[in-house]
Amino acid sequence: MELKPAYGRILLKLSGEALMGEKSFGIDSTVTNKIADEIVEVQAIGVKIAVVVGGGNIFRGLASSSKGFDRVTGDYMGMLATVINALALSDAIERKKTETRVLTAIEMREVAEPFIRRRALRHLDKNRVVLFAGGTGNPYFTTDTAAALRAMEMNADVILKATKVDGVFTSDPITDPKAIHLDSISHLQVLEQQLKVMDATAISLCMDNKLPIVVFNLRKAGNIKRAVLGEKVGSIVKT
């Protein structure tokens, strides 16, 4: 039976920590390969996929600014870390015979293409997995905001926000055993309750453009595909 995805074009948001698995730093190739497998499987059913990956497994600009780094310098260092992660994930996907392109908001033509919206759209139309690196190219903006921005620029139907918990909760379920899981919640409620789904700028962008966000547990194999097929997985944030 032919699978019919609920979303034809998605933006997958991965944290840098997602690539390091159980390590304390860097990239775990086994975990990266598993993520690549799921991306390739979803792409094979006809879904156009763009990916934004963070850099927290290598460097965090905001955290480093509290330790003496200049905030702007730290943010640029964090953006460079996202390029390393995007290249690693791109390589893992390419080894599975699926074509990719890495586009970065900070020019470095020897390793990635500069971000140009029309070029990125053409890559998606040609069934390439497009990986966006370098955040927005500006300090003070997170990769969550970059994900929301790129999703709108690529005309994505949804943002799939990969996390290490089973969706949106009233508080952090890792530290609070009384945290309540929320199947569905509005963008405005996320902002009002200050829930840690994505940062406030990203949530506001999605709310203004009526872009839904599916928040799910990346550590459960097959969840990316389940989310794309519209199965009940994690939580959905919508207007």
CATH architecture: 3-Layer(aba) Sandwich
Low-confidence stretches: none
The total number of structural domains is: 1
The total of helices stands at: 8
Q: What is the CATH class designation?
A: Alpha Beta
Oligomer: single chain
* E-strand count: 11
CATH domain topology: Carbamate kinase
- The ordered string of helix (H) and strand (E) elements is EHEHHEEHEHEEEEHHEHE
Task: Describe this structure as you would to a colleague.
This protein is α/β, with parallel strands linked by helices. 36% of the residues lie in helices and 18% in strands. The chain has eight helices and eleven strands. A nine-stranded mixed sheet has the order 4-3-5-2-1-6-10-11-9, with helices on both faces. β1, α1 and β2 form a beta-alpha-beta unit. α1 crosses α3 and α5 packs parallel to α7. The longest helix is centred in the middle third of the chain and has 24 residues. It is globular and about 50 Å long. The model has no long low-confidence stretch (mean pLDDT 94).
